[in-house]
Amino acid sequence: MEKPKYSEVRAKELSTVFELPTKNSIPSDNSPHKVTIAINDLPVDFEYTSIPKILPKVYLKGKALNSKDYPMLEGDINVFVDNDFINRTYIHNTMPTDTIELALGVDESIQIEKVLINKFAESSGLISKTKRLTYAYEIQIKNSRSTEESINIYDQLPIAMDKDIKIELLVPDQNIEDLNNERKLEWNLNLKPGEKKTIPIKYQVEFPGSRKVYGLD
Q1: Chain-centroid distance, C-alpha 47
Q2: What does the DSSP assignment read for 127-151?
């Protein structure tokens, strides 16, 4: 069987021209029509990401290097995994050697949630009282897939906008000053099929007892 002929590419200084080697009939009905320019196989690296503080879901993302000599044009695309429609997304112009990032949606086979285990309040001082709140959380993850998976998990400590409010990270044992300005916590976990893991988080907030502090939970 003769292989189909696809477009040849001519790169100009400021543009790229796709030349189709075959003729195509396009009806003059003022409606959009598609013709095949090329079919390419690009290896995809898959990555799982979750921010359970915002939403208890695990998202799958794909990254593919454009190893061809021509750009991938921007526009809407349909994403299929194992011949099943997964998602409809959008890509920008991707030049050769650039990376295409695809949002592949939620994978329900990996469950995650952030649970408040304990909240403890105490006060100290006779005249100028200081209030101290201690929060203990757990991020609970389970891999229900039949394969081992790697997951990037992100969380965030409260950010004090007042110098009189002090936040101390107790668990994990990490100096809070070593975190970035957004106070992000990051983990990369490998979970075997059916494996469960728990990430403990514990921090303490100290502030003058006369202050009202919001947004800690």
Answers
A1: 8
A2: SS-EEEEEEEEEEEEEE-SSS-EEE
pLDDT in tens, 18-28: 777 778 788 88
Length reported for the chain: 217
Q: Please enumerate in sequence order all residues whose Cβ is within 8 A of that of 44, keeping only pairs 6 or more positions apart, or say none.
A: 62, 63, 64, 102
Residue 8, pLDDT score: 60
The pair of three-digit structure tokens given for residue 171, joined into one six-digit string: 């668990």
Tokens of 114: 């952030």
Low-confidence ranges of the chain (pLDDT < 70): 1-15, 125-128
Residue type, 169: L
For residue 22, the model assigns a pLDDT of 76
Cα–Cα distance for residue pair 11/20, rounded to 1 Å: 14
Which pairing describes strands 166-171 and 196-208: parallel, antiparallel, or unpaired? antiparallel
pLDDT of the residue at 9? 58
CB atoms within 10 A of CB 147: 9
Burial of 128 (0-12, 13-18, 19+ CB in 10 A): exposed
143, 149 in Cβ contact below 8 A?
A: yes
> How far from 46 is each of 89, 103, 147, CA to CA, in Å?
16, 10, 13
